[in-house]
Amino acid sequence: SKIPTNLSELGENEEVGVLTSLSRDLWASLHENLSKSDDNLESLKIIESSTAVICLDKSLPNSDNLNNDEANICNFFNCLYGISVDDNLCNRWYDCGIQIILTEDGCVGMVQEHTSADGTSFNQFTAMMRNTAMQYMLHEFNKDSTTDKNIDDFIPLRFTLSDEIKLEISTGKSQLQNLGGSISYARIVFDTYGKSFVKSLNISPDTWFQIAFQLAYFHIHGRLDATYESCSLRRFRNGRTENLRTCCVESKLFVESMVRNSGSGVSELRAKLLDVATKIADNRILASSGSGFDRHLLALSLAARDSNIDEPFFRDPAYADSMTFRISTTHVNTFGWIIGFGPVCPDGYGICYDLQPDSAVISITDSKDCKSTDSQLFCQELQRYLIEMQQLFSEKTNSCSAE
Known about the structure:
- The protein is an alpha/beta fold.
- The protein contains 13 helices and nine strands.
- Helix 8 (about 205-220) crosses helix 9, helix 8 (about 205-220) packs across helix 13 and helix 9 (about 250-260) runs antiparallel to helix 10 (about 265-290).
């Protein structure tokens, strides 16, 4: 067909996208060098002005020998980093906000980069794309509106590559394969209950699952650490996000009592859990109304840096520890997709979760290079504590509520 023929003519030009996986400073320098060529600059402008890029991938490796779960996980990693140089590793452009992945054997996926927009916007786009695809499959489109009559309009983008750029591409391929291959992925479909049960207790389902994350983490690591949950500021013009910190004094008191079996009775544990829910609800209101502190501190730290001000506060070990999010979470509607993201620090977890009325789908990643983290074990402990939390409310608890 026309498009694959054009692609095969590009040779090393196909691999330029690997440069977007390098460190930001290095890629910025290489981008500047590339832009000195008029042809390169024109190609970069075309790519960077696009709303999305479509990655036409080879089939997933060994796809004929994979069961459904294995194929789904393989597709996740293929979307994330293309798996290997022999597969699709060079067929990505990570600067683009939306990459739509299509494989020869029919797998579909997306890679989203959050600089240009937040999860809510991407979620709406994903829903629209999914619904449009479903309509097409159901033959609701007019066939005359989808034609390949303009197929010859596809024009290969050419790059003139210096020896330095070629060397960095080679380095980038190795680094990206090592980085992607270092991620461990685990996923559970928890079907004992979902958000309907939690709502019946007058507790926020999101808060409930955040507490469960704290329990599982404390059981494995014997401590609590800074936890990140994105909170939208879309009520404000040009608003983006604030951090909702779900790890708090109240959660520490509850988690320690629950995990260590400190002799607290069911009523006391129940009361402590409700205290956590109330505190997180208060924090959510503060964060979503612009009264959180993370973005303010970020602005101050950047202003101090740009003004060459050596502010001791930002060098304090306690501040550094508070900004190391070993539990980074996001709550999204997955529409049945396999979804996830890597941990944001070497000894942390990336947790993506979708809460449905009677179930929850939770994806967890960690680094294979870190001996202290274990995403599979985290999933096991998480399921355990979700059940134990439910058992605290096994009796009728209409009098219990968290405002």
